[in-house]
Amino acid sequence: MKNRIAISGAGGKMGCALLNSIARLDWCELVAAIESPDSNLIGLDAGELLKNHNFGVTIQDSLDQAAEKIDVLIDFSAPEATLNNIEFCSSHSIPIVIGTTGFASADEELIDVASKSIPICCSANYSAGINLCFDLIERATEVLGKDADIEIIESHHRGKIDAPSGTALAMGEAIAASLGRDLSDVGEYGRIGDVGPRDREAIGFSVIRAGNIIGEHTVMFAVDGEILEITHKASDRDAFCAGALRAARWLIGRTPSLYSMRDVIANSDGTPQ
Hints:
33% of the residues lie in helices and 23% in strands. By secondary structure, it is an alpha/beta fold. Strand 5, helix 3 and strand 6 form a beta-alpha-beta unit. The chain folds into 2 domains: 3-122 and 237-266, 3-Layer(aba) Sandwich (Rossmann fold), CATH 3.40.50.720; 128-234, Dihydrodipicolinate Reductase, domain 2 (2-Layer Sandwich), CATH 3.30.360.10.
């Protein structure tokens, strides 16, 4: 039996990429696609977003009519919509994969509470490569972190609305945790004018928004005499789709808890989706 997937944020860049992937896969099927109530996509077949496909699934503004059909929801929307979807999933015992970023601290607490009743996978980035980068970054921090000036540089397309990216912030949090620091105390998000000498414990962030850049992240460890850079560049959203779908397949039937993509990678056989 195919896994039945719902997509929230179906008309966005990641939503369309996920629809394209689902159309090609034989282990899953689309059973629901939702967008914001003011979207001009409401009422269209989701396949119209792909030009040459017919899902037989009409884009709606809620999941209410599809609740009994859904095995797992993949959400790449906006924080407010995601929180509403979490409430819906909690009420109907539906696992949810969250790719939305830009949550406030209070939102993250709500996600944590919801994970006590349903399985939730929440990650800032679902590419296997970027999650490997986290392992490399943590190792570099162990070796160089206390002596290095650490900077995180991220680049995305002109339409991305949150900054720094969720992935960049997650990298900063991982580095800070490895060093026994709190990112809220040591993060620096903009420098202009006479800022004085660099704080040696600071973790700096630089943000680029330009063109159609899908996603690039570099962590720089600069010590006297040498610089180590760990860089990941995404050239296609298929990398994120493969990870999100892998997480969705893995999450079905799991014990309620808050998981990450790193949990998915560490506890699966790595079979391509």
